[in-house]
Amino acid sequence: MSFSLECKKVKRTGFTPAFLFGGLLAAVVPVLNMAVRSENYLGIHAAPVQILLDANWQMMAMLNILLIVAGACLMYHTEYADNAIQKMCTLPIKESKLFFGKVTLMLLMCIVVLVIEAASIAFCSCHWFEMTSEVWIEVMKNFGYALLLMLPSALGSLFIASVCKNMWVSLGIGVVCVFTATMLPTRSFVLSLFPFALPFQIFAGTAENTACNFMIAAVVEIIIIGIAEVLFLKVRRSFE
């Protein structure tokens, strides 16, 4: 019910086209990079997927997170415009279900974006490197890992957007969080656990133990943000 309702709400906001265009824009990054500077990467002795992600994922991840931040702000802007969220609260549905309906829609759009980007990485692997049967397995592993690590930033963006009634405030906070994440030392495991820094991590070339720690941290952050949102809604409702 809440998911279908969220789909109807964003139907006329440009939410879906924005994610599709953003996914295509991020997918173009490795193609253009290989087309212009392929000689810089063809001599590297590593798996094609690892080479491509090492060279392009930082830019692709930043575009993904900025897209998530903008999408979250857009979703809640429709709620706070003309006090629509107050009207929704009069319906026989919990406000937390509205949040998790938005989370489901965001998750779906993140999957769509990552599928587009995975197709781009697979194309570059096949076109510029030697094609092997392991390429598809590596692509699925890396982008499944990327999806999990992207979820804390998605929930975090939705949480911020739900707290701030002014879309520009939540957008500003989100952008500051993104650029803060880009300035954190990449070798520091603790600082890399910042929700907006997690999506910059790459599965390929990462030690198995470290990758497992990042995945556990992502799951824990998802649970914490979900609980924080439920508590916030209860507190806000008691003061209204």
Automatic annotation (TrEMBL):
<feature type="transmembrane region" description="Helical">
    <location>
        <begin position="56"/>
        <end position="77"/>
    </location>
</feature>
<feature type="transmembrane region" description="Helical">
    <location>
        <begin position="98"/>
        <end position="123"/>
    </location>
</feature>
<keyword id="KW-0812">Transmembrane</keyword>
<protein>
    <submittedName>
        <fullName>ABC transporter permease</fullName>
    </submittedName>
</protein>
<feature type="transmembrane region" description="Helical">
    <location>
        <begin position="214"/>
        <end position="233"/>
    </location>
</feature>
<keyword id="KW-0472">Membrane</keyword>
<feature type="transmembrane region" description="Helical">
    <location>
        <begin position="171"/>
        <end position="194"/>
    </location>
</feature>
<keyword id="KW-1133">Transmembrane helix</keyword>
<feature type="transmembrane region" description="Helical">
    <location>
        <begin position="18"/>
        <end position="36"/>
    </location>
</feature>
<feature type="transmembrane region" description="Helical">
    <location>
        <begin position="143"/>
        <end position="164"/>
    </location>
</feature>
<dbReference type="Pfam" id="PF12730">
    <property type="entry name" value="ABC2_membrane_4"/>
</dbReference>
